[in-house]
Design brief:
Oligomer: single chain
Bound molecules: manganese (II) ion
Distance between the termini: 34 Å
Order of helices and strands: HHHHHHEEEHHH
CATH class of the largest domain: Mainly Alpha
């Protein structure tokens, strides 16, 4: 999965990220680095700093899990994405696309992994929890009936993802509706065009040290660390005011 790729090697293929440029505009850098301008795009090819201390999510998520999740797993997907884009650069230069099938699979996996981890780490935090705010609150009530119904659906989806994956609250831009999706691995079961807004990582690496096989307990507790004002802010900017 590219976890062994060194950071030095990983930085090598910047510039090939054009296809992901539209997606990258979603992630205003202030979500992970509070000093940056809101309009500044982020670089998906570099691992962003953790936006809170490693122990800030306790007791919901323990310090060690946060550290390994960010520094090893998230970093691994960033390295993998760099490697895949570099491989594609080399293929274009050589004119040989013999590996295109495998690289396409790897690119979908790693790019989706980077994007979902960007959202994950920038929409959770300490002093969070509660309920959605602003227009997102209105639209959750419109599209799900109430917050409680939404949360029942979202948590049920998250708890029942087969093997490794995600629960995803997404904006479907064609009919302008909110949807709850499941993602297997990072890239499977998506619907084209949907923008992930809030995500619950249910890979075992996200919870196993503290919860072991009790994924449902982790998902229930996850509600306590969702930073809804951050979710709402980016939702308005990139989904409603696009
Ligand atoms: Mn993860």
């Amino acid at each position: 999965m590219g976890h062994e790729i060194s950071r030095r090697e990983a930085i090598g293929s910047a510039g090939a990220i054009g296809a992901l440029g539209i997606l990258s505009s979603f992630f205003e850098s202030e979500a992970l680095a509070s000093t940056s301008a809101a309009s500044q795009k982020v670089n998906l090819l570099e691992l962003p700093a953790l936006p809170f201390p490693e122990d800030a999510l306790e007791p919901v998520i323990d310090k060690e899990t946060v550290r390994i999740h960010h520094d090893k797993h998230f970093a691994g997907y960033v390295a993998g994405l760099n490697k895949d884009l570099k491989t594609l650069d080399q293929a274009r230069q050589s004119g040989s696309f013999d590996s295109i099938k495998q690289v396409s699979r790897d690119l979908a996996f790693n790019a989706s992994g980077v994007i979902l981890h960007w959202i994950y780490f920038s929409t959770i935090g300490p002093n969070a929890g509660g309920k959605p705010v602003g227009k997102l609150d209105v639209l959750i009530k419109r599209d799900f009936g109430s917050y409680d119904i939404f949360w029942k659906q979202f948590s049920a989806a998250s708890k029942t993802v087969e093997a490794s994956g995600w629960g995803v609250l997404a904006w479907e831009p064609f009919s302008e509706k909110l949807l709850v999706l499941q993602a297997e691995k990072h890239q499977n079961l998506t619907s084209w065009g949907c923008m992930p807004i809030m995500v619950c990582d249910v890979w075992e690496h996200a919870y196993y040290l503290k919860y072991q096989n009790r994924r449902a307990e982790y998902v229930d507790n996850f509600a306590k660390i969702i930073d809804w004002p951050k979710v709402e802010k980016r939702f308005e900017k990139y989904c409603l005011n696009k």
